[in-house]
Amino acid sequence: YDSYVNKIASSKFMIIARYHSLCFSLKTLTPFLALKSNSHKIEGILSDVGIGSSRIVTASDIASTEFREFTSEEEANILNYINEAPKKIEGMFKVISGLIEK
Predict the structure, then answer these.
(1) How many Cβ atoms from other residues are within 10 Å of residue 96's Cβ?
(2) Total domain count, the chain
(3) CA 89 – CA 85 distance, rounded (Å)
């Protein structure tokens, strides 16, 4: 785990094709492009983060797409997400546990 996270954290840029790699790129503030997939998970988390779809590309578009650092706005959105998501997740589980009869 540590080796994998350190490898991502020390990378200058990532091309992401899997959801969990995207999560690690966000957590380590490693700039990326994400390949469009057949599920909505990548689009969903980028929407939740506040980045939107500007970093999502198709495989055929990669060669002509600029690899770029995060903008200050993207970085601020990512840091906010990293700080707030655990609290929101904990709240969601509290709501769910309250729905289950004991």
Answers:
(1) 9
(2) 1
(3) 6
N residues, the chain? 102
The residue range of the domain holding 59 is 2-99
Give, for all 102 residues of the chain, the pLDDT tens digit: 999 999 999 999 999 999 999 999 999 999 999 999 888 999 999 999 999 999 999 999 988 988 899 999 999 999 999 999 888 888 888 888 888 765
* Predicted model pTM: 0.84
Q: How far apart are CA 69 and CA 72, in angstroms?
A: 9
**Please, are residues 11 and 29 in contact by the beta-carbon 8 Å criterion?**
no
DSSP class of residue 79 equals H
Task: Please give the Cα distance from 32 to 61 (Å, whole number).
Answer: 14
Which token pair is 39? 């599920």
- Nearest-angstrom CA–CA distance, 97 and 102: 9
